[in-house]
Amino acid sequence: MSRFTHNHVRTGVAKNLAVRHTAQTEQHGERTLPEVLRLFDRNRMWSDRLKEINPDYFSNLAKQQKPEIFWIGCADSRVAANQIIDLPPGEVFVHRNIANVVVHSDLNCLSVLQYAVEVLGVRAVIVCGHYGCGGVAASMTDDDHGLIDNWLNHIRNVQRLHHDELEGLDHHQREHRLCELNVIEQVRNVTKTTIVRDAWRAGNGPEVHGWVYGLGDGLLRQLCVQKPDDAELNVLPSPTKEDCDVHP
Ligand SMILES: [Zn+2]
Asked: Is 133 among the residues known to form the active site?
């Protein structure tokens, strides 16, 4: 698309936004944030950029999704799944929550996992945590966080399970290591679901990986993996402190 055409499209978008804004203002007063309305502008420009490269991009993508990766990650805005593994829409199926926790009574997470394994037939499930995780840090305090403390108790269970290892570390090292151990335990939880066990028994289940992401350098490290034929989880040596820039 030429610059003129592109600008023309942008101008059209701005007019549409103005019309929409006026309509919303009439209906709701001045409650709609300009920052929110601008998202439509950004969306249109993004869509135009991709269609400029491939006019059939969205029509092809709309026909089906066939991702081979299922990602379970933290809701933290800095750990956006598609972006940090540089994959476009359609390539990764995603579930995110506070501190990438997998709970066997969480119907939300289990439903997404079931769809990923049984319908999409993903080849790998990746649980990805990150250093500097606010959920992990909050789980290490006795402060009152309200409702979310019920959720953070799952991470406190991880802390209790690995008490002996964590006990000898200073606070910073303990938080750093707990981010890793939380991923490893959540991977164990994935491998213990009836969904993954049934798939492995049938001979077509996914590999399950545990990764941790460094906010300070944008790099991933592998922590553990279990393949369908493995008897147990293969836990790799912890990434060295020097290798991990854990400061956000
Ligand atoms: Zn987090």
From this structure: yes
95, 109, 128, 130: the active-site residue: 130
Report the DSSP beta bridge partners of residue 234: 225
Give the 3-state secondary structure of residue 111: helix
Are the beta carbons of 190 and 127 closer than 8 angstroms? yes
136 alpha carbon – ligand 1 mean position (Å): 7
Domain assignment of residue 248, yes or no:
no
Q: Structure pTM?
A: 0.85
Give me the residues paired with residue 208 across strands: 125, 226
For the stretch 173-200, pLDDT in tens is 999 999 999 999 999 999 999 999 999 9
Q: Please name which of 70, 117, 122 lies closest in space to residue 93, comparing C-alpha atoms.
A: 70
Report how many domains make up the chain. Answer: 2
Same domain for 166 and 213? yes
From the CA of 164, how far away is ligand 1's center (Å)? 24
Write down the catalytic residue from 8, 20, 38, 78.
78
